[in-house]
Amino acid sequence: MKIVVAGGTGLVGAAVVDKLRAAGHDAVAASRRTGVNLYTADGLADALEGAQVVVDASNSRYTDYPGALDFFETATLNLLTLGAAAGVRHHVVLSVVGSEKLASSGGLYFQAKAEQERLVAESGMPYSIVHSTQFFEFVRAIADSASDAHVARVAEALVQPIAAEDAASAVVETATGAPTQRVVEVAGPDQFRLGDLVELELRWAHDPREVRADTEGEYFGARLGAHDLLPSPDATLYWSHFTDWLDRRT
Ligand SMILES: NC(=O)c1ccc[n+]([C@@H]2O[C@H](COP(=O)([O-])OP(=O)(O)OC[C@H]3O[C@@H](n4cnc5c(N)ncnc54)[C@H](OP(=O)(O)O)[C@@H]3O)[C@@H](O)[C@H]2O)c1
Questions:
Q1: pLDDT in tens, 201-210
Q2: Average pLDDT for residues 171-179, to the nearest whole number?
Q3: Could you tell me if 192 and 138 are in contact, meaning their C-beta atoms sit under 8 angstroms apart?
């Protein structure tokens, strides 16, 4: 099956491409590095020719609302319109557990992700939305976004992170199955207080920043309730443990 992976050179997208190819699919990575611009649509129609499935694992470099919204809205409409013209019959998008809640709690990036999901769900194209919890690889960015030079003030909330590799497996399973026409959730096996998770990451990196859990702390602009980052009970849980992953990390 020909499957175009938008953002197929990114953290999750590249792993999705590798896994699809290993399973015998014709996976095409579509990103600026491979000559495809999702925003301007340059190279996109050619990449989509003959594709049956589109996986959107692209990301915006903007975390503000206008920048992120402009990217996700334009890229998504380009993928849906040119995908339909090319005969695509399943559009899979990777998004974030709790995107709607995070969007309504003030998270500007998440408002753009929620809009991306709405466009897909209302497009008439058969679709699946994969909601993942935070990637292990993203914990440093969480610390950085909440830090000054000496202290990381992270929100007082629970989190159940997943290895990007496992999130990629979930996306592959979804993309090679029938459209779900709904959100499916995936998460890692272990729950942490966000502050404890950031502490593990920083101590691993010999980073001297102090970590303080802060009930007033924000998560990329969103005010978090204690359970806002957690998956629902029917989420599929993957296997990799954060502490094992830290041990193996070079
Ligand atoms: N971080 C987390 O913990 C987390 C959790 C759940 C869900 N997610 C979602 O997972 C998705 C993927 O995240 P990620 O961290 O794997 O992304 P990433 O590593 O930042 O990769 C982003 C990809 O998008 C491509 N891209 C960006 N602008 C493009 C453009 N104009 N045209 C074509 N390609 C473009 C990049 O390639 P080029 O630079 O070559 O164009 C790259 O391949 C995101 O949508 C995110 O919301 C993330």
A1: 999 999 999 9
A2: 98
A3: no
